[in-house]
Amino acid sequence: MTLSVCRSVAELSAALMAARAGGQSIGLVPTMGNLHAGHLSLVAAARGRCDTVVASIFVNPTQFGPNEDFQRYPRTPEQDLAQLEAHGVDAVFMPDVDEMYPLGERDAIRLEVPGLSEVLCGAHRPGHFAGVASVVLRLFLDVRPDVAVFGRKDLQQLAVIRRLVEDFRLPIDVVGMPTCRESDGLAMSSRNQYLSESERAQAPVLHAVLSQMLAAAQQGDPWGDVCTVGRQCLQDAGFKVDYVALRPESDLVSDEPQRIGAPDDLVALAAARLGSTRLIDNVALSEGV
Ligand code: PAF
Hints:
Oligomer: single chain
CATH class of the largest domain: Alpha Beta
Strand content: 15-25%
Number of domains: 2
Number of strands: 9
Bound molecules: pantoate
Low-confidence stretches: none
Number of helices: 10
Distance between the termini: 39 Å
Mean pLDDT: 97
């Protein structure tokens, strides 16, 4: 089957009509484009679970703050379409801002996610998760997938989306796929290309520090101490740290500095800047690290 490129909801509905009529399962991989191997692993996961695979490419303005990188976010639609076709995607939804937000960006309804959207990345990017939840709900309503696949690198985003699905009782199976890494441990991200040569050389320290933090928690160091050491290591390596945290994946909100031990779902998370580039990453015990 050749790739259908749909720029409107009407085109998307037409492209999916036969699949729906035939009772096929539909998998969705939402992206902002500029695809790398991490995105393609999400496509493979959807392909393995569903009869029909839809990917979306939309750089969503409502999840960027006023001083963030919306304008310079890399946009490479031709290469993205070629890769998606080569990886067996059936349809790509590529709306523009007016199609995605018919009442205009300013008047678009936004979804608040109490608690979860206010901590970690949310504390440093006000409004970010409202923008993510809002656009993902729109994508869910437009595509009506059975399965939606997201990367675990954005673990807090994944938690927000799981909450969205639970709270609205959406009949969608949300799948979180492991982070794809470069050979030196750096989590793949479209934003890595902003890094200078010297920043790129420092960037893998983020993953190394998170791994050390998990090990220290397993050895019984109190979580607050582990985070203090982790923060210091990142600062020594030239990072400006937004946050360093240890949390159970089942509760990303509660901060428990006195806590000792390593529950099965323990995860070490951080966001930190090298120059003007903000990197995020996390390492989870459940991933066998
Ligand atoms: O993870 C991303 O690329 C985006 O946040 C998403 C889920 C496509 C929503 O714009």
